[in-house]
Amino acid sequence: MRFKYGCNPHQAHAQVEPLHGDTMPVEVLNGSPGFINFLDAINAWQLVLETREALGLPAAASFKHVSPAGAAVATPLPEELVRTYEVEGKELSPAATAYIRARGADPKSSFGDFVALSDVVDVPTAKFLKTLVSDGIIAPGYEPEALEMLKKKKKGGFIILSADPEFEPPAVEGREMFGMRLEQDRNNEKITLDHLKTVACGELTDDARRDLVLGLITLKYSQSNSVGYSLDGQMIGIGAGQQSRVDCTKLAGSKADVWHLQRHPKVLGLRFKKGVGRQDRINFRVRYIEGDLVPSELAAFEEALDQPLEGLTADEKAAWMEQLTGVSLTSDAFFPFRDNIDHAARHGVSFIAQPGGSVRDDEVNRACEGYGMAMVHTGVRLFHH
């Protein structure tokens, strides 16, 4: 199958072919995918399929540039998140709830995402998705009405892929680059609750076990280095592709802070004028939280509001952040220094899963004990490139 182009439009030749026979594990039902679309779809599909298998809950992912902006399973939405995600009065099926949570992790980054669902796409999911800026979706199947609804999205150009959940990929994977072929064993390490058995300190709750497994699987399909924060069945901050692990921890932590501050009464209380689009509302809220609006943006924000603008002070942010607890943190490789733990403590982290194996494991363990955090060593590194 020919793609519309490669990673960039000037890379005109781009295609995909099955390795064995004529059967493809992914079928195009609508639209014309590009090279990057397919990379996002394949990674996202593996993430949700493995999460569904590990946790027994419908799973969803929101992918951008070969890393997830968000991932989640179907857990009930509390009222403040219903308001935050703007789904008041909507029918929320388990599949829809999983994607609403995944999209809500980092809605600014999810703009123009590629969606993956572990379960058949139903009408409530399609109704939510049709209101968003998104490039495409991959799932094991679609209800007829949902499929017809999505085919009309983007003037008929929305990419719809169907994946075979029974497909078993080859044990060895490879890629050709710069006149050479690189091969390696496929990463067939299935993340399960068993990876949380080696407890270095503290105790895990059942909710933490769910969130840690979700976090580990999410990082398995994120560009390394990567660190993730999860809570209540969804990722709330992902830092991927950074050269320094502590920078991953900081980046993911800052995203988790913005996610939590979206639930602040002042943020939920912002009233926008009729006609202000959903993504504009999201972007204004994020910039309001970050507090770095330049004069031109501030004027546009005030024009969009149907109320006088009252700032969110540093003290108000700090007081609200103190309420964030029970967060789970996962890392795709060991923590080389305790500074990662020190930064994690600023973002409500109570539980940690990381491979272990650093010469400074004892120092990292003591840091966790000092903050009252529980930590497990999975024994498995999850680098992904």
CATH class of the largest domain: Alpha Beta
Instruction: Give the name of the CATH architecture of the largest domain.
Output: 3-Layer(aba) Sandwich
Question: What is the fold named in CATH at topology level of the largest domain?
Answer: Cytidine Deaminase, domain 2
Indicate the overall shape: globular
What's the number of extended β-strand segments?
A: 14
Q: What average pLDDT do the residues reach?
A: 94
Count of the separate structural domains: 3
Class from secondary-structure proportions: alpha/beta
* Radius of gyration, in angstroms, nearest whole number: 21 Å
Q: Describe the sheet with the most strands.
A: 6 strands, mixed
Strand content: 15-25%
Terminal Cα span: 24 Å
Uncertain runs are none
Q: CATH superfamily of the largest domain, called what?
A: AICAR transformylase, duplication domain
What level of helicity do the residues show?
25-40%
What is the strand arrangement across the widest sheet? 1-6-5-4-2-3
Record the SSE blueprint.
Layout: E1 26-30, H1 35-55, E2 59-64, E3 67-73, H2 79-84, H3 94-104, E4 113-117, H4 123-129, E5 134-139, H5 144-151, E6 159-163, E7 172-177, E8 180-185, E9 199-201, H6 206-220, E10 226-231, E11 234-240, H7 245-261, H8 265-268, H9 278-290, H10 295-304, H11 314-321, E12 327-331, H12 339-344, E13 349-354, H13 361-371, E14 374-377
Parallel strand pairs: 4-5, 5-6, 12-13, 13-14
Antiparallel strand pairs: 1-6, 2-3, 2-4, 7-8, 9-14, 10-11, 10-12
